[in-house]
TrEMBL record:
Name of the protein in its database record: tRNA-dihydrouridine synthase
Binding sites annotated in the UniProt record for FMN: P44, M45, A46, Q103, K175, H205, A261, R262
Enzyme active site: C134 (proton donor)
Gene3D superfamilies to which the protein is assigned, alphabetical: Aldolase class I (3.20.20.70), Putative flavin oxidoreducatase, domain 2 (1.10.1200.80)
Domain DUS-like FMN-binding, first and last residues per copy: 42-355
Known catalytic reactions: a 5,6-dihydrouridine in tRNA + NAD(+) = a uridine in tRNA + NADH + H(+); a 5,6-dihydrouridine in tRNA + NADP(+) = a uridine in tRNA + NADPH + H(+)
Record's function text: Catalyzes the synthesis of 5,6-dihydrouridine (D), a modified base found in the D-loop of most tRNAs, via the reduction of the C5-C6 double bond in target uridines.
Domain of life: Bacteria
Organism: Novipirellula aureliae
Pfam families: Dus
Cofactor(s) required, per the database record: FMN
Gene responsible for this protein: dus_1
GO MF: flavin adenine dinucleotide binding; tRNA binding; tRNA dihydrouridine synthase activity
């Protein structure tokens, strides 16, 4: 059932100029008792998917489940024990519309269980997701968490099982990669472990940890995992940067849902495009560059409201680069926006250097 908070206004720009597409039925995704419709999820991304970004995605619509940045469970406990403010990555969660997932990471089952229960009791989250896919060295080699744990299936089982018990009845899900390296792909084995431990859904990024984000996601490998799951849904992730690719994922691969990640960072309207394509509705084309600029400035105002001008300006540099990506003059804009330190400087750089010519291919704009 939708709550009053879900009934928020959608951003309405003139770029909703329709074009025809073909209906591709995609059933709603069920995670425990939670129905995700459309079955298109926004990926948790550290440093990016904060409350301001999520608000913009919600205003455009099209994502059935949004997620926070990943939260360090051990760091959360430390802040709590020292009576410090809870992590910035939980900014907005308590008041935000649902459904909403919070992703956490660590390698200690009891720490994870403690944080998971807090998220359920105090933040009333819809889903608690476990990160077993992060390939960043600080998380893997230094903290022995994220994708590092793919080499320890029984430890993963214990973490998931303990968290499921602690969070009941809120569903617990897991996100993994294909394996630690191309030579040690074990996603089929891990999928069985995830389900047996009690997780309500499995998301798979179609690369190994060693691959980082190089090469192409292997959707054939993702699809093969489905036969190793008995009851829980499989969500595919990797390289989904257009409505057409989302439709193709459902057409060609045995997945129950899809997760959009990096491609949405400068294009939060991508979810609405993908959702329209799945329903067979006309797909909204890309906003004009002037409209994209307006979305970016709206995003900046939301960040300023939370963090103040100085911190918000620094945080907004990386988002601004995302909004410019794929456009002629993106490199020139990045060079200037990377140096701004005040709101006035940010607005000046946007006025003078944000791309104003038609969009070209990413390779031409890099």
């Amino acid at each position: 059932m939708r709550s009053p908070r879900d009934e928020r206004p959608r951003l309405s720009f003139s770029f909703f100029r329709w074009r025809e597409t073909i209906a591709i039925p995609a059933a709603p995704l069920q995670i425990g008792d939670l129905v995700i419709d459309p079955p298109i999820l926004q990926a948790p991304m550290a440093g990016f998917t904060n409350a301001a970004f999520r608000q913009i995605v919600r205003q455009f619509g099209g994502s059935g489940l949004l997620a926070t940045e990943m939260v360090n469970a051990r760091g959360f406990v430390w802040l709590d024990e020292n009576e410090a403010e809870h992590p910035d990555r939980l900014w907005g969660v308590a008041e935000e519309a649902r459904p909403l997932a919070v992703q956490i990471w660590d390698n200690d089952a009891e720490t994870m269980a403690k944080v998971g229960r807090r998220l359920v009791d105090e933040y009333r989250v819809s889903v608690v997701d476990i990160n077993f896919g992060c390939p960043v060295r600080q998380v893997t080699e230094k903290a022995h968490s994220g994708s590092y744990l793919l080499r320890e299936p029984q430890r993963m089982f214990h973490i998931i099982h303990r968290l499921v018990k602690a969070c009941n009845p809120t569903p617990v899900t897991a996100k993994i990669r294909l394996g630690c390296s191309p030579e040690s792909i074990n996603c089929n084995e891990i999928a069985k472990v995830v389900e047996e431990a009690g997780a309500a859904a499995l998301t798979v990024h179609g690369r190994t940890a060693k691959d980082m984000f190089r090469g192409n996601a292997d959707w054939e490998r993702i699809s093969e995992i489905k036969q190793h799951l008995r009851n829980i849904p499989l969500i595919g992730n990797g390289d989904l940067d257009s409505a057409e690719k989302v439709v193709a994922a459902f057409q060609n691969y045995n997945v129950d849902g899809v997760m959009i990640a990096r491609a949405c960072l400068g294009r939060p309207w991508l979810f609405s495009q993908a959702a329209a394509a799945l329903k067979g509705d006309p797909v909204p084309p890309e906003p004009t560059l002037a409209e994209q600029r307006d979305v970016m400035l709206h995003h900046f105002r939301l960040v300023v409201d939370r963090f103040g001008e100085e911190k918000a300006t620094v945080l907004m540099r990386k988002y601004a680069c995302c909004y410019a990506q794929g456009k002629r003059g993106a490199r020139h804009f990045r060079t200037h926006v990377a140096r701004v330190s005040t709101a006035a400087e940010f607005h000046q750089v946007v006025d003078e250097h944000f791309p104003s010519e038609p969009i070209f291919s990413n390779s031409a704009a890099s």
